[in-house]
Amino acid sequence: MLTVLLVDDDADVREFVGNALRGAGHTVTLASDGEEAMRLLDSICFDVVVTDIRLPRANGHAVLRHARRAPPRPDVILMTSFAAVPDAVAAMKDGAYDYLTKPFEPEELSSRLARIEEARELHRATHEAPMAGDGIAGLLIGASPPMVRLRERIETVAPSDAPVLIVGESGSGKELASRALHVKSARRDGPFVAVNCAAFPETLLEAELFGYERGAFTGATRRREGRFQAASGGTLLLDEVAEMPLSAQAKLLRVLQEGRVEPLGTNESVKVDVRIVSATNRDLKKRVSEGAFRNDLYFRLNGVTLAMPSLRERRTDLPMLIHHFLRRFVPQEQELPEVTLRAWGALMTYPFPGNVRELAHAVQHAVVLSRGRTIDLEHLPEDVVGGQATQPDADVRPLNAEIKRFEREYLIRALAVARHKRTRAAEMLGISRKNLWEKLRAHGISDAEVDE
Fold it and tell me: What is the pLDDT of residues 326-382, one digit of tens each?
């Protein structure tokens, strides 16, 4: 629950709103004018200030500016009449968290406070998150159920020499998972070699994988061993394996069957001892049905499948990931910058189609623009802040459908932050436990989905 300073010169509003907030479990202090509010800010630490804009003896803008200087800085929600909405919007640019147009229902204010409380929980989790450790935990960061299951599966699979196929969206960490497999295997002291199958044209990919003798093709001025030989005794990652041309697939299949490679320009074969890990963001079964990928090679590579969860499937890992990237991009001698609640809100609602790679870029972007100080909305990439506003009209869905989608995702997120304790989640959301149960049922949110 939050400590709230409520400022309004209307005694009826103070009593009505104050009682509603106390009923929701918040600690509320009342002030009737701007000067009284500023004196209270100088002597008491508040989480949130809820203030009218039109006040006697210093208006809401003055209270906002004063609150911005008060340590620790509280969030400010403005109350205003419809006619003064432009003033409230201007105050938002000066750092106000949100505004409400009078008259409003107490539930509207409670929902704003619930979002602030959630963001503060996330902020605490970020700054209390442990440093990434060694081994798998240091490579695959996260404590969400999907990441726990992934690490457990890697622990199980790594000791064998079975080929592994890692599938997942771009930026979800497939190469990190392959490195974790190598680190936990008996081959950990051997080399780990990665090759991007989409980065080379057909002839050069074969040369890259299998090696070549001098004069094997134009430009081959010296002998070179391939990636298979370089990885012998260790692990070879075939990244973006779905993009491998059919001719290279046939040669790869033969290498996997015989355990020997034949460099270009020679008839002599060389024995290799390599564990194969493949990765792709494509549907390999579909590529097989389209004739773009060999069926027999697919079964050779797909000894065990590891599915990488997208960032959307493990949003509760965001605090830990952001903490990790802040430590990576902020110079070691500097303290980690604060992330404002507005920036938190943008990070938590953005879908991150580029997954963890895009999150890392967003954090680096923010660190550079903020110069290592407080990270706010203006320091985040434009896509994260509000790229959805620039989407074409064809992408605009009916408002009711979007509200329902948002509410469903928000309920699941609130339960995750509350560690699946429904009473706690209901308190954070500012609704009763019965209301929460009704909403879960209305959105078809099952116990398995909530507790996974």
Answer: 888 888 778 888 888 788 888 888 999 999 999 999 999 999 999 878 899 999 999
pLDDT > 90? residue 242 = yes
Question: CA–CA separation, 329 vs 416, rounded Å?
Answer: 28
Rounded percentage of the chain residues whose pLDDT exceeds 90: 40
Give the pLDDT score at 82. Answer: 60
- Domain 135-307: CATH architecture, name and number where available: 3-Layer(aba) Sandwich (3.40)
Domain 395-451 CATH (choose: 3.30.565.10, 3.30.470.20, 1.10.10.60, 1.10.10.10): 1.10.10.60
Question: Where does CATH 1.10.8.60 sit in the chain?
Answer: 314-390
pLDDT reading at 227 higher than 80: yes
What string of H, E and C letters represents the secondary structure of the chain? CCEEEEECCCHHHHHHHHHHHHHCCCEEEEECCHHHHHHHHHHCCCCEEEEECCCCCCCHHHHHHHHHHCCCCCEEEEEECHHHHHHHHHHHHCCCCEEEECCCCHHHHHHHHHHHHHHHHHHHHHHHCCCCCCHHHHHCCCCCHHHHHHHHHHHHHCCCCCCEEEECCCCCCHHHHHHHHHHCCCCCCCCEEEEECCCCCHHHHHHHHHEECCCCCCCCCCCEECHHHHCCCCEEEEECHHHCCHHHHHHHHHHHHHCEECCECCCCCEECCCEEEEEECCCHHHHHHCCCCCHHHHHHHCCEEEECCCHHHHHHHHHHHHHHHHHHHCCCCCCCCCECHHHHHHHHHCCCCCHHHHHHHHHHHHHHHHCCCCECHHHCCHHHHHHHHHCCHHHCCCHHHHHHHHHHHHHHHHHHHCCCCHHHHHHHHCCCHHHHHHHHHHCCCCHHHHHC
Correct CATH for 314-390 of 1.10.340.30, 3.90.550.10, 2.40.37.10, 1.10.8.60: 1.10.8.60
- Which fold does the domain 3-128 belong to in CATH? Rossmann fold (3.40.50)
pLDDT of residue 394: 37
Does the model's pTM come out above 0.70?
A: no
